[in-house]
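Section: protein folds

Sequence with per-residue C-alpha cells
===
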Amino acid sequence: MPHRRNRGPEAPTLAPLDDVGLRQLIRQATDPALLESMCWSRPFDADDPAQVAAFVEAISLHVLPESKPTSPVLLGIHVPSRPWPIGYVAFKGGNPALGSYEIGVAMVDPVQRSRGYGRPAITAAVDYAFGRLAAQRLWAAVLTTNRPSINLGRRLGFRVRERLPASWPMPSGSLADMLWLEQTHTDWSARRTPSGTSR
C-alpha cells in the first residue's frame, strides 16, 4: 500500500463571526502568551456584555496612518474537528480611496495554537480580502518583537512598508515599535500557482 504523505493540519475555513462564536473565542483567549502578543492587559469576560463589546473594539482597532474609521468585517477561523472557531480574522480601517484594509489574525484556542493553522488561515483571509472585499492592498501592523508573525508574513509575500517607532501603547504604559506590512492584490495574484495555493 502506498504511503500517504501528511498534508499538514485540517484546512481552515472562514465564516462570519456570530455572537456564540465570539463569546467562545473570548472564553479561549486567556493564555498569557496570547494576551501579551495582543497587548491586552487581562482576559475579557464572555458573560459581561460590556466586556464582549470591549473585545470587539480591541480586535477592530485600526492603527495605521492611512486607515479610516469604517465598520470591521469579523470572521471566525473554523476547522472540521472543532464546533467553535479557533481564531478570528478582522478586516478593519478600510480606506475606499486606496482599496485598503488592515488585517488582524489570531489563533486563540490554546489547544490549536502552534499547530500549523496560521499560514492556511492567513492565505484564506488574503484570498477573501482580494476576492470578496475587492481590496487592492492589505496592511498589517505587527510589533517588532513578534518575530513569528513577521516571518510568516514575509513567507506569504508581505513586505515591510515602514517602521513606526513608539507607536503602539502597551499594557505597561510604554510605547512599542511596529512594522507596517503590506501585500498588494497584484503581488498576491502573481504568487499564486495554478493549483490555487501560494508558493
Summary: The chain has one domain: 13-191. The longest helix spans residues 118-131. Residues 1-6 have pLDDT under 50 and may be disordered. The domain at 13-191 is CATH 3.40.630.30 (Aminopeptidase).
